[in-house]
UniProtKB/TrEMBL annotation, chain A:
<dbReference type="InterPro" id="IPR004017">
    <property type="entry name" value="Cys_rich_dom"/>
</dbReference>
<dbReference type="Pfam" id="PF02754">
    <property type="entry name" value="CCG"/>
</dbReference>
<feature type="domain" description="Cysteine-rich">
    <location>
        <begin position="6"/>
        <end position="88"/>
    </location>
</feature>
<feature type="compositionally biased region" description="Basic and acidic residues">
    <location>
        <begin position="260"/>
        <end position="271"/>
    </location>
</feature>
<feature type="domain" description="Cysteine-rich">
    <location>
        <begin position="139"/>
        <end position="223"/>
    </location>
</feature>
<protein>
    <submittedName>
        <fullName>(Fe-S)-binding protein</fullName>
    </submittedName>
</protein>
<feature type="region of interest" description="Disordered">
    <location>
        <begin position="245"/>
        <end position="271"/>
    </location>
</feature>
TrEMBL record, chain B:
<dbReference type="Pfam" id="PF11870">
    <property type="entry name" value="LutB_C"/>
</dbReference>
<keyword id="KW-0479">Metal-binding</keyword>
<keyword id="KW-0249">Electron transport</keyword>
<keyword id="KW-0408">Iron</keyword>
<dbReference type="Pfam" id="PF13183">
    <property type="entry name" value="Fer4_8"/>
</dbReference>
<feature type="domain" description="Lactate utilization protein B C-terminal">
    <location>
        <begin position="448"/>
        <end position="514"/>
    </location>
</feature>
<dbReference type="InterPro" id="IPR004452">
    <property type="entry name" value="LutB/LldF"/>
</dbReference>
<keyword id="KW-0004">4Fe-4S</keyword>
<keyword id="KW-0813">Transport</keyword>
Amino acid sequence: MRIALAATCLADTLFPGAPRATVRLLERLGHEVVFPTDQACCGQMHVNTGYYREAVPVIRNHVETFAPVADGEWDAVVMPSGSCTGSVRHQQAMVCRRAGLDDLAATAEAVSAKTYELSELLVDVLGLTDVGAWFPHRVTYHPTCHSLRMLHVGDKPLRLLRAVESIDLVELPAADSCCGFGGTFALKNADTSAAMLEDKTANVRGTGAPVLTAGDMSCLMHIGGGLSRQGTGVRTLHLAEVLASTREEPTPLPETTFSRPERPARTEATR
Amino acid sequence: MSRTFLGLPRTLRRPDDADARHGTPDEPFGPVPHPQEPLRWGDDFPAAAKQTLKNDQLRRNLGHATQVIRTKRAAVVGEVPDWEALRDTGSAVKQQVMAQLPDLLQQLEENVVARGGVVHWARDAAEANRIVADIAKVKGADEVVKVKSMATQEIGLNEALADEGIAAIETDLAELIVQLADDMPSHILVPAIHRNRSEIRDIFLARMGDAPPDLSDVPRELAMAARAHLRRKFLSAKVAVSGANFAVADTGTLAVVESEGNGRMCLTLPETLVTVMGIEKLVPTFDDLEVFLQLLPRSSTGERMNPYTSLWTGVTPGDGPQEFHLVLLDNGRTDVLADEVGRAALHCIRCSACLNVCPVYERVGGHAYGSVYPGPIGAILTPQLTASTGGVSGHHDPNASLPYASTLCGACYEVCPVKIDIPSILVDLRAREVDADRSSRGVDPWKTAMKAASWVMADGDRFALAGRAATLGSGLGGRDHAISVAPPPASGWTRSRDLPAPPRQTFRQWWAAEHTAPVEQAGTVETEGDDR
Ligand code: SF4
């Protein structure tokens, strides 16, 4: 398949490891990945904060960048984020319609019909649960709210993780309760957000797993922020980074929650 | 209502509290005194939550109680094979009601009057309170017994009656606890959910007047004390005041569902019954009750069926109250109805399932919402009910902060028996606030940031530049790549969380270095050279 990657603005800028792993994984599975460089952001932050008007140009850019998928130029668009996929699916067209842009709304719907969150793409579209991964570590998984309740991915990510060779997957207590991120909620209601995070990090620590994984870097940034501050040493890795790992090319465990080996492959060599 | 002590924690008293047990009548039990406006009190949400979060006891009480109710609800909902279909039906019926509200209300009025009732229309709280007080006065009552009702909480009826020298006695156990403590309710269904058993015992001993001196904090004993206290009131009261869970337009029938039987006493013993009901509580036909009487108890108390369902239609000679008044309350509801998105908040059947699953409510408690309607439903209903006085858009109106009191995690929508898409309404209310604010000239850092971000994020090249600029900060985090101090507004974040330092290379820089895919644009290749 030819799959267009929507890297998401957050991961592109702050967590390049997640989209890089998505590329590595899909290429390993024999697919062609394209990265349309006109992309920037899906508009979720603006929409969720109530800035519909400011969201429109952002959404327009996303929709126009990925419009070729509606014409069959690519077979699918993949987003390594539950909340961004949720925004594409449930918000973009609504905001366009509100702005009186019915044509853009129609294109947005056509694009969203072929846009998948990573676990959806793997399980529903590619029909895989075993992606041939090897990851010999204890891992716990946080199902992010939007994957769970907006996209209804159910246990797809867990099925993918269970099929990983040598993984020690441990259940996260109260997994489905929100970590307290909520975008600007973490800033506007910082105290409440911190109280929610406290419970989440306590549960993560309780599993004894050195790795927390999830399908959304925004939630991982939040939980990771708490784990890093508490000096727990628990690392946060995107689901794609776990699934991309193989015996031949394992995903190394970062030294600390937020540290990453910076330059892989060619760029590393050129330094 | 409910199984009385539903979810109340067993042993939350810290050992060193033993002496605090013997409350005196003057002890201020209630953390929240009765506000002037039951739909708008206290600080805005972030500030109020900051206070309530400090109360560890409250958090433990709530954490335990909501967990118990959540589990019960999930179990009884899980055993209904057509639950989703029921929810769809409930939602569809409510949509129909909103679409035909004026006609259905008239139909209800005709049928109530035809069966011997009197119908009053109240535009706002003051009108409704006036109507009830006048009825009580005509009947010469200086005391009325009350069935638990959100509508009468919303209009501050008890305080209004007190001003006229009429005592309103709450007969629902949890409501009685709140009333005796001179407190405000913190939950729609379990108004004293923020109290544990020993606190309740203290309140009874100090305030009830006729509680046995050796009262323990065993739920059964507490319930028996309340029962003895209330029985005398039931037998002496001439006037009862209730709310309504449902009103059936095509028959004029009113319905109250409850667990304790106190409601049934109020609805049958006194000579005069006054029911105050929000105009949205209608269902078109008697058959529609079938849907809601399945949805409500399972969603609210986690019971298959509530113990008491009282239905009455006008006046039945020789049986029950011989005078019946129905007060139809607007109090901002027609404003809510006018909003295409927000009107779904009027579908609410006050089951409180959304409160019980809300991770925000569970941490901060009901009082932080500054309204008799707390939790997710409160966050969408309160601002809308008070919209005409700035509830959605007022710059310094605490209610305008409520739509932001959510992470949009969606747990509320998932459990709502009438499928109110609360997260979408929250977002829509945020947009209404932002739009109302556009004309204001003041400098709002959020507005400035959002506009700037919109410009950057609407274009791949501009965004690439911004990303490259960010990589200049890659050294900020030191060895562990974590930033632990940041200026406002990020300081709210870094008080309890680190931020990741930007990477030395954005994803698109890596891509440009690694791939030469056909869709790639020429300009991106430069980043490779940039890195060296
Ligand atoms: S909004 Fe829905 S879940 Fe919340 S109280 Fe109303 S009916 Fe129940």
